[in-house]
Amino acid sequence: MARAAIPGRLSVRRAWRPAVLVDRWAETSSASTLVLEVDDWPGHLAGQHVDVQLTAEDGYQASRSYSLAAPADGDRIEITVQRLPRGEVSPFLVDELAPEAVLEVRGPLGGWFVWRAKDRGPVLLVAGGSGIVPLMAMIRARAGVSRAPFRLLYSVRTPQDRIYAAELHRRAEDDGGLDVAWVHTRTAPAGDPRPPGRLGADDLAGHGWPPDGDATCYVCGPTGFVEAASTLLLAAGHDPGRIRTERFGGA
Amino acid sequence: MGIITRGFRGRRVDDGGRTPPGQYLTGDFPVLSAGPTPRVPLDAWTFTVRAESGDVQAWSWAELTALPVEEVTVDIHCVTRWSKLDTVWRGVSMDTLLAKVETAADYALVHSYGGYTTNLPLEDLLGGQAWVVFEYDGAELGPEHGGPARLLVPHLYFWKSAKWVRGIDLRHQDEPGFWEQLGYHDYGDPWREQRYQGD
Amino acid sequence: MDATYDGNILAGPLAEVFTAEITTAVARCRNCGRSSAVAELAVYGPDPGLVARCPGCAEAMLRLVRAPDAIWLDLSGVIAIRLTPSTSG
């Protein structure tokens, strides 16, 4: 079923290759997952991304980077795209790209922000908004393959913004060794003991790993979120060499 | 050319006559940056013109803002394809700043706080074509748009309107600035679509 | 720093230039001597070009412009890059 995760030779990586939209579904009111079929997809590591290029009829081109959301399923890859209100590409991908339409992808890309099943140590995943995507790829790659303890801290504005919410709840119960904690910055669910507010030291203390516990931390989200989370991790005593970050743009 | 994705359109290119070729109109004011936003306290701010002879003229913030100030309404055109019409600025004309400079130089290299540079012919800074501006749209120019002061040269692509301007060197030879070193055009006329070297 | 991106976003554009995986390569800043993974650089852009700055001193280490018919690359802010020639990602 799934190919071995061979990250791919570079001649494959650098070329733009056709990708056909074969399935799509909404994750939230502003984010959708797109399933693309790419002939001879070489497989990829959790955390890697693809560049997507769109060409209009007048020749105009735009490209953006999107994290792969899940392990490859043969030639099928998944990305989850968040609609940015005045974006040029994301509203088209989320709202208009039709099944059988063709785009171009380049990848898989990136060797830094990756988790491999052979990495045994505990992992802390810190996600802000759509920064959950590459971290979800890691969670999905881990399932059934690794018992490395994973803790996810996922910061969103409101419960309606939680991407993959149902699946995360299920995996927290079923996967074994995965803990999921939510941080709501604007509106918390009724009865939630944690009042709305940004990620803070208490959240890390309660749901993270102790700094001397050999954990690797992956932080992903908008640049402001990544800066704030990294500062908290360093202040808590985590080794900077064990913190990997990926900034998604935005504020 | 790449494979066409059915239904994808970039921003609609405007051909209403006021926009140069290949540009679209925006109601926003996009912020593009090549580096961190400099923060320059006004009591440390200076603007310096250095002639090819080495002669220097400099203005403090108080001195600059004591000069005659003009309000101008201009269209601006970014090489990244957005155009914005009827933008309103207040500042000091480069004609005023260069009035007492003795020079035989043909070119200018503009310097900004934070290290950005851009080059253009000296004559494009004269004749009512350029200003050092410190107000946009009726308010103090914000740091993300180049405040406290930026150069405004609207007849060229907007990367020539250096944000956080700090001075100008006058030179006999044209020397490429930050983006020109990386393939952008030495002159940059939007109406001839001079985006890249060789255009 | 207020950079929108980091060096992870350079992976695609630099794959057109380097045959080895570049984001895990270590680059030494000419200005301050700090060594960083390319993925850790503070990246501005992508328009009108990519500017990758040292996370320590903000000096521009790497700049890249993708013009219609050419790639322009400036590495003058880097003393050296240590790449691991890769057969895998």
In short:
Chain B has helices at 61-66, 94-98; strands at residues 24-25, 46-50, 56-60, 70-77, 82-93, 107-112, 117-121, 131-136, 139-140, 150-152, 165-171. Chain B has 199 residues and is mainly β. Chains in contact: A-B, A-C, B-C.
Can you lay out the helices and strands and say which pair or pack?
The complex is a heterotrimer of chains A (251), B (199) and C (89).
Chain A: H1 10-14, E1 17-26, E2 31-37, E3 49-55, E4 61-67, E5 76-82, H2 90-95, E6 102-109, E7 123-128, H3 132-142, E8 150-156, H4 165-174, E9 178-184, H5 201-207, E10 216-221, H6 223-235, E11 243-247
Chain B: E1 24-25, E2 46-50, E3 56-60, H1 61-66, E4 70-77, E5 82-93, H2 94-98, E6 107-112, E7 117-121, E8 131-136, E9 139-140, E10 150-152, E11 165-171
Parallel strand pairs in B: 1-5, 2-11
Antiparallel strand pairs in B: 2-3, 4-5, 5-8, 6-7, 6-11, 8-9, 8-10
Chain C: E1 5-6, H1 11-15, E2 26-29, E3 35-37, E4 42-44, E5 50-53, E6 60-67, E7 70-74, E8 78-82
Please give the oligomerization state of what you see: heterotrimer
- Rounded to an integer in angstroms, the radius of gyration calculated over CA atoms of chain B is 17 Å
Overall, the morphology of chain C is globular
* Rounded radius of gyration of chain C (Å): 12 Å
Strand content of chain B: 25-35%
- Termini of chain B, distance in Å? 19 Å
